[in-house]
Amino acid sequence: MTHDQLKNRHREVRDTYPPNLNLRIHRALSWWQRASLADDDDGRYIFLWIAFNAAYATQMDDLERPSESVAFQGFLEKLCGLDLEKRIDALVWEEYSGRIRVLLDTPYVFQSFWDFHNGKITEAEWQKRFERGKQKAHYALGSGNTPMLLGVMFNRLYTLRNQLIHGGATWNGSVNRKQLRDCTQLLGSLVPILIQLMLDNPNTLWGEACYPVIR
Asked: Is the whole model's pTM more than 0.85, yes or no?
């Protein structure tokens, strides 16, 4: 579906939907639309990540807040469980399987690679983690476990997000552009499916949106 189609659908149902869900969908749609207007991969990826974050992030006390990887995994498992039409499966296994395999072999979107180069862990440790992550992904690929594979992939996407948001990359730079393009295309295809699933399942417990509107 296009942005306008999803926006019009939301307008038709929002009066009967929970306020927190409406806020999530409204924000996610706004950032997805902004991403479509960006004429560069760096900007588009950042806006797509904000759209994803607007949809999934939940208000929690700091003591209860899980790690990002745990939060991603739980949210992705929920989405795949709700996806009765298997739209996410089709995306992962038919459209992006080749690019996902390439990204899994790319160290530049693996956080432990950078931890090694920053002196936080040894070379052997980052390589061990890298191989362990690839083994988990290959098991998911072999068994058709979409949530597990997406969980591994989102750890890579999160590393790329950190590089951009924290100034660890040059805008429109010449290095590592292919993985940025691949990650941008994957996230750009996933976000509208995510919004559709939220629209399809208003009675699912999505949690309280972060930073509610205060009037």
From this structure: yes
